[in-house]
Amino acid sequence: MHLPDGLMPVEMALAGYAGSGLLATISLSRIKRLPDPSSVVPRAAMLTTVFFAASLVAIPVPPTTVHLMLAGLLGVMLGWFAIPAILVGLFLQAVLFGHGGLTTLGLNGLILGLPALLAFGLWRSAGRRWPDLVALCAGSGAVVLALVIFAALVLAGMPAALDARAEQAALWVFMLAHLPLVLAEGLIVLVVLRVLRRTAPQLLPHG
Amino acid sequence: MSVRCKSALLLGLALVVTAPPAALSHAAIMEAEVTQAIRLHAFYETGEPMSQAQVFIYAPDDPAQVWGQGIADMQGRYEFIPDAIAGRWSVQVRQAGHGVMAHLDIGADAPVMTISSTPDTWAQRALMVALVAWGALGTALFARSRKGKQDASA
Question: Where in the cell is it found (chain A) (predicted)?
Fold first, then answer.
C-alpha cells in the first residue's frame, strides 16, 4: 500500500514531506531523551530489514493482492524508533524496487508512520494490563488507520479528469481485500510478543 | 399545367418525402488508412492485470492537459491512435491509488519506443534484500559492540 510517483499533486507531495519531516524531528528528539538510545539500534536495524522485505510477500486476496505492512509491529517493538525505521525502509523500497516513490516518500511515511505511533501509544498506555488484547488491537488498528489515511489521500488528490465513482468503487474493493490483513497483522503482533514473553522477556518493549 | 402533370408531380414529391432514409444511402463510402496505434498492457508487479483501470493520455504539445482518456479492458489492455505530433507522449494508468506513468517517444521516422521500468526478477530481489539485511546486521553488530566497549570502560 504505497502511493507511487506521478499520481499525487505536487502540493500534496510537498505537504507529505513536511508532515514526515515533522514526525521524524519529533521522533529523533524523543529518542535523544531516552536513557540509552543506542541499546535499541540493533533491534531497529533488524526490524527495518524485516519491514523492508515484508513488502515483497504478496498475499493473493482476489481480485487483488495485498502485502504485509508491519506498522503495528514496528510501533510496538521500536516506539519512537519506528519512524526513522519506516522512512529508511520506504526509501530503500522506492530506490531498489520502485515500490512507492521518491516524490511520495513523505506521504507514504505518514501512511505508515502515524499508525505505528498509534500502536506504540496503545502498547505504552495499556500493554502491561492487557498485553494480548492490546497487541491484537495495535497490529490490527495500525492497518485500519493506514487504510483510512491512504484512502483519504487518494480521494483528496484525485484529478478532475478522473472518474470519481469508478475510483471510489475500486478503493472500496481494495480496502475490503485488506480485511484479512487487518486480522493477520494483529495476530503477528500477538504471536511475536507472546514468543518474546516466554523466551526472552528482557526484549519485551514497555515504552 | 394539366391535371395529369400536376398529379405526376405530386406523386413524385410524395415518393421523395416518404422514401425511407436507408434508400438514400445506397452509395456507401469508406476511407481507410494505415496508421500507428499504441497498445498498452498494464499490470501489477505480481502479474495481475489492472482490469478496468482508468487510462489518461497526454500529448507532447500540451502535457498538462489530458489529450484522451479511457478504460482498460479486463486484461489491462488499452489501444489508442495518437495524433501526428512527434515527441514524448505520456500515458498514466491508475486504479485505487495505484498506477504507473509510462512515456512513449513517437518520432516522424523513428519507431515507437516505450520507456517504463521492467519488473525485477526474484533473484534480483533476493540479492537486494540480502544486501539490505547485511547492512542492517552490520549496523546492529556495530551498535552492540560499541555499547559493549562503553559498558566495559565504565
Answer: Cell membrane
Q: Where are the domains of chain B?
A: 34-117, 118-148
CATH architecture observed for domain B34-117? Sandwich (2.60)
Q: Does A66 touch chain B (CB under 8 A)?
A: no
Domain at A10-203: CATH architecture? Orthogonal Bundle (1.10)
Distance from CA of B140 to the nearest CA of A (A): 4
pLDDT tens column, A76-133: 999 999 999 999 999 998 888 888 889 999 999 999 999 999 999 999 999 888 999 9
**Cβ pair B136:A3 closer than 8 A:** no
**Domain coordinates in residue numbering, chain A:** 10-203
Q: For A165, which residue in chain B has the nearest alpha carbon?
A: B96
Complex ipTM value: 0.74
Q: CA B105 → CA A67, B38, B76, B88, B108, distances in Å?
A: 34, 11, 21, 4, 10
